[in-house]
Design brief:
heterodimer; A: 154 residues; mainly alpha; Helicase, Ruva Protein, domain 3; 2 domains; 6 helices; elongated; B: 178 residues; alpha/beta; Glutaredoxin; 5-stranded mixed sheet; two-stranded antiparallel sheet; 5 helices; 7 strands
Chain lengths: 154, 178
Amino acid sequence: MRSLALPIAAAALLALVAVAALQLVVPREPPTAAERAHTIAAELRCPDCQALSVAESRTAAAAAIRAEIAEQLAAGRSAAEIRQHFVARYGDWILLSPTDPLAWWLPALALLAGAALFGWWWIRGRRSSMTAPPRAITDADRRRVRDAAEALDD
Amino acid sequence: MSTRGGLLRWVAVPLLVVPVTWLLFTGLGRDPRDIPSPLVGKPLPAFAATTLEGEEFSSESLDGRPALVNVWASWCDPCVDEHPLLLAAARAYAGELSLVGIVYQDSPDGARGFLARYGDGGWPDLLDPSGRIAIDLGVTGPPETFFVDAAGIVRYRHVGPLTEEVLVEQLAVLGLDR
């Protein structure tokens, strides 16, 4: 059983790599107008529902926005122009992903800062425990132990 | 150890706890519908549509005097609550203030029924079957009211039912404060 597991895993991995490579090599067809419209709609928040994109929602407002997107695409406007059209009316609120790059970098930066802080704390802890030499035992210590042991015997 | 540990405790912990607490307090207290309109300070987007009476209406006819653009629907309960205020404003500032309603996701019959029941102020109510006007105004749901000055610039957008306080205050901004 175990002799089979490794070749199967290797073959699966190879197939996975092959598929991924094929995806990169084979030229993708340019998206159709409907696909482009869907991509734009998926990035816009549906105005009269909670936490749904215009592409997913079935409300009348979402349908109206989808129609507007299709119309503007047909008129030759770019995806960025169409997004801007809705931002000018609804504000950044209409965009489902934040536009401020800080929103994307801040969590990663916080994670890195936390890891750095933890690493510093950990290394410092190890170094101090390693470098601090054990105190040499003095005669006074020996005397105290002897006295205590004698006290116990009494 | 005690000084370093103390420093860490008294500096690092508040440094983490205070911003998170502040974020939760300010973030959770906000109304998710209360989004500042990017149209404030900008010209009202132009629109043209058919009124409930079947007449053509263009937003160009609003030029020259202050206007209220009220987005409403007969299925919208808060719209019932604010309707008397709109009627009162129309009466108080007849000839000085234009009012125009935009019927949001509603049938003409539904809208007519609402006016028959709660009072028809006589101002034009535009049908918006495709929802295009509402989207051009960035409407998230009725009722919403846009306060537009005589130059056609949006001065304020109110989400939710109007209150007398808001109405009086914002009409004063438009120069109507008798």
